[in-house]
Specification:
mainly alpha, membrane
């Protein structure tokens, strides 16, 4: 939804309506069957789209960041900083695709993404791989074992602004992790254990503890952490040559991207589950689609994430196919269907719904 267009009363009513307990929602087998049958021809990832999108996003982002650092005009620097934050944010969100695509689908893409985006932004792919898939596990979603779930709609009102604003500190925390904690952990095993368990995943559940890496993830973790540590130390070392200003500008841009991602995360789900296991349909309805005609969602939820509820039905669907999959399912299932129940008009109504839910007496 475009933020400048008015929100109709029907949309607000849907956004604030009382819903049944999530555990009471049975699976809509017709919807699940349609999601499987109508999208079989859309499941192949197209390398040309992935490579072009990622490279252009990263290239524009770094060019704009360099401009923000080098120009002498403050207004122009701010504009370039915004362009850099939005572009690098889009490039960074390919980490979500890396956690789902088959390892043979895009040869070289994971390595290239880590070298161009993941390590420079101190968010290599191991921080999502092996973690995000737990969020999609049938018996984990919305429970205490889900690393990416908090019942935000059932928490205190102050929890929402805190949830968003804490993202401002993420780039500084990542710099400290890779420049200080990783080298210390290499010589002090207990520090290494704590860092891995608690500070090595893009999770929002403070109770989550990550298990040691296994299989092909283990060597990836080694070289990605080594690359991240070398890069973080180089960033700090650069301040002795060119001063602190370039690094602080870069961290400010990354902080803006992190806050935008946290806002997107805030409205990716309704966060109304109290910890009990849910059916697939209940998980779908607790997740959010923000489909067209609004266009601004493509900025704050890029790389297919505006179809987050649909993604929970079809987690292996390439991001470039989700729009067509949505059109097919919406046309086939029609108005008033379970599928339509996960469609929402935009970020503002979703934030209002969650905020109002935090204010209800319990």
């Amino acid at each position: 939804m475009n933020m400048h267009q008015s929100i109709d009363s029907a949309a607000l009513a849907r956004a604030t309506a009382t819903v049944p307990p999530k555990q009471a929602i049975a699976d809509d087998k017709a919807m699940l069957r349609a999601a499987r049958d109508l999208t079989k021809d859309l499941i192949v990832a197209k390398p040309a789209i992935y490579w072009t999108d990622m490279l252009l996003s990263a290239g524009l982002g770094y060019a704009a960041l360099a401009g923000a650092i080098l120009v002498g005009s403050m207004p122009l620097a701010v504009v370039l900083g915004v362009v850099a934050a939005l572009s690098l944010y889009r490039a960074l969100l390919f980490i979500h695709e890396l956690s789902h695509i088959h390892r043979d689908a895009l040869p070289g893409f994971r390595l290239a993404w880590n070298l161009l985006v993941g390590i420079p932004m101190l968010t290599p792919s191991f921080m999502y791989e092996g973690v995000h898939t737990l969020h999609h596990a049938r018996t984990r979603y919305g429970t205490a074992d889900d690393p990416e779930y908090l019942p935000l709609a059932l928490m205190k009102p102050w929890s929402l602004p805190l949830f968003v604003l804490i993202a401002l500190l993420l780039p500084f925390a990542l710099l400290f992790r890779f420049a200080v904690l990783v080298p210390l952990g290499a010589v002090i095993p207990p520090i290494r254990t704590i860092v891995w368990q608690r500070f090595s995943s893009l999770s929002i559940n403070p109770q989550f503890r990550r298990r040691p890496p296994e299989g092909e993830l283990r060597p990836r973790v080694f070289w990605q952490e080594l690359g991240g540590s070398v890069w973080a130390l180089a960033l700090l070392g650069s301040t002795f040559l060119i001063g602190w200003q370039p690094l602080l500008i870069a961290l400010a841009v990354f902080s803006a991207a992190a806050v935008l991602n946290q806002l997107r995360t805030l409205v990716a789900h309704l966060w109304e589950n109290d910890g009990e296991p849910m059916t697939v349909t209940a998980q779908f309805l607790d997740s959010v689609n923000v489909p067209p005609p609004g266009r601004i969602a493509e900025i704050w939820a890029p790389v297919g994430l505006r179809y987050h509820a649909l993604h929970h039905l079809l987690p292996s669907m390439p991001y470039h196919s989700l729009g067509e999959a949505h059109r097919r399912l919406a046309a086939h299932l029609g108005t008033g269907s379970t599928y339509e129940g996960a469609n929402h008009p935009g970020m503002i109504p979703l934030v209002l719904r969650i905020a109002r839910s935090t204010m209800r007496p319990r």
